[in-house]
Amino acid sequence: MDGSGEEGAAFTTRDVRDILARAVALRGITQTFLADHNQARDDVQKALSVVRTEAAQQELGAIPLSRLKDVTEGRLRLGAVEQAGYASVRDVLRVTPYTLQLIPGVGQRSARQIYAAAQQIERAVADAVSIRIDIDRQDAPTTDLLKALKRLVNAGPSLERAHRLAGSTEARLAAALPVARPARSRLRMWFAGAEGRRRAREAVHEISSLLSEATAADARTLFAQASVDLLRPVASDFEAWTDYEIQSPEYQGLLAEIGGIEPDRPAAEGFLSDDIAERVKAQELDDTHRTVSLRGYQAFGARYALAQRRVIIGDEMGLGKTIVAIAALAHLKAGGGKHFVVVCPASVLINWLREIERRSTLKAYPIHGRDRAAATAEWTRLGGVGVTTFAMLDQLELPAEVAVEMLVVDEAHYIKNPSAKRSLAVAEWCGRTERVLFLSGTPMENRVEEFRNLVAYLQPELLSKLRIGDGVAGATAFRKAVAPVYLRRNQRDVLDELPQIVHVDEWEEMSEADLAAYRSAVLAGKWMAMRRAAYAVPAESAKLERLTEIVKEAEENDLKVIVFSYFKDVLAAVREALGPQIHGPITGGLSAARRQKVVDTFSSAPGHAVLLSQIEAGGTGLNLQAASVVIICEPQVKPTMEAQAIARAHRMGQVRTVQAHRLLTVDSVDERLLHILEAKAELFDAYARRSEVAEGLTDAVDISDASLARQIVEEEQRRLALL
């Protein structure tokens, strides 16, 4: 401090005053945001408390009075109370002990014991009650809960980052500002003494560093925008439920976090040993380059991949293995990593490209197809994620100075045969890459020899500990034995809030045969032929290949599947591809009684089964909740038709997450159709949903078949004429 008489001072008194003024202003913005954030979470807690109470009351109403004997080891006599009309534990809790003792035959001591036993059950139910948001039961308490959650959900993944930064900023400023205060003037510094002056200078330097960090992170804008998001007007009931249907995983993730209703810890951690679980939880997970929030079990999966370095994540389909991998890549990017590789079947390459760029700030490059040389050159130069196929991996060459930070292998069971060409290519890349992540939704417990082959790529030193008979001991015992290299979680273990809908758009590149059939249909101006051209040559259909993979994975996980298409001949192609043991198809020509019989046979079939249905015939009027995987073969002209079809499975009685897969091809009628429908849906969001009569306007997002067909056919004819 200039004129302070101390050596080594870096700031003049005027500098200090400016620094402290800026720090106080920053602290004000920080505290405002933290207060807004705390209020938003408090609102969720209050709404959740009401929902919990109602859910607990419903459960208590279903518990018969006789269960009070269990609490007191059979000592209570309840005959007189039952004769007085008390049938459930809830009935007892709705009165007082005094009311109970007025019942003939019930003394004061018995009344107190009965009431105390009921309270004990009430506490147990309150601790264990599960919260399930049911779109078929939109009661007021749940609606209020969704409204409270909506503010936090719509603030987006940056909210978590803002809160973390605000917390550390407030803590540092709260500690440093009082200590730095004497540095505002030379007189105060003189009275502070030598030790006080030293501490004041250190505090000023700390605050100056903090301000530089805050500027680099654009903290002021981040906090201010977050506060604006948290203070948006309360949504209408309809908006809250509509947003929940679109973003249910985000709502459920927040609900689990705020309500403390995350799943059982050992299950969410894949039954790992305590030492591995603790090491994984100690692993940091940087979200700077991630644009999606993670569920607790997903964050644990990403940490596991980072901490263990070379592993298999075998979570059941529908749990978000792709997001787990992207979270790990984003963390490594934040740490300075530049180049990453994803290897996958050709049928999911487009999905990987889109998911990486949707869920993170990483740039993804398709190392596949005609332009792979140019994509490889740009990826090599700029860094990012190179996404390639098993067939192309052995042709991917990089300069010696380019280090790949992580290799991700999707559908890793494709390389279970170590002598196959693609397996040898993966093995060569595993040998030169320090971090490797295999993904597979196929359970390994009953395929120990295949599992050993995968481990040989990752941690061959573990092979001596894996025996063919290990799977016989059961899934949990198997997972504990292979914990250093294998993590698997099942839906029923980690998604307590079931059911929900997971929407997956499966983007495929057309095969040569698909493209030839599509060109022919476009040039002829045949709208319906364009829509089903991807199935014209079943043996070479990219969509049919992906559909078969989804059904195969569902079979491995013992899940039932419904396949919807508008077209009978598409369903015929699907039947031919999947084999004879297929139920249906349900078509418009079947009587109602016959349709129901087909559904009943499908629903009662043990384990995995597949049902085919025309979307108009099976999309309404039938309950298909036995299925938890829905495949829609092509996008529909009317979005409500798709929604109704999915709703056949996602309804009362469904006990598993519903996975809705929509098969799409790039640069085709599918993509044009979605663009038009999305634009119309945005108009619907902007106007119709603000209306009090919006719920009656479901057809507002549908378009005339004829006008849409004419528009898209003309656009595609012009586009293809230029190729």
TrEMBL record:
All copies of domain Helicase C-terminal, residue ranges: 546-701
UniProt cross-references to InterPro entries, sorted A to Z: Helicase_ATP-bd, Helicase_C-like, P-loop_NTPase, SNF2-like_sf, SNF2/RAD54-like_C, SNF2_N
SMART domains hit by this protein: DEXDc (SM00487), HELICc (SM00490)
Keyword Amino-acid biosynthesis part of the UniProt annotation: no
SUPFAM superfamilies tied to this protein: P-loop containing nucleoside triphosphate hydrolases
Pfam families the UniProt entry points to: Helicase_C, SNF2-rel_dom
Molecular-function GO term, any one: hydrolase activity
Domain Helicase ATP-binding: 302-461
Keywords for the protein's UniProt record, in alphabetical order: ATP-binding, Helicase, Hydrolase, Nucleotide-binding
UniProt key word Hydrolase: yes
Entry-linked PANTHER family: SNF2/RAD54 HELICASE FAMILY
Name assigned to this protein: Helicase SNF2
Protein species of origin: Acrocarpospora macrocephala
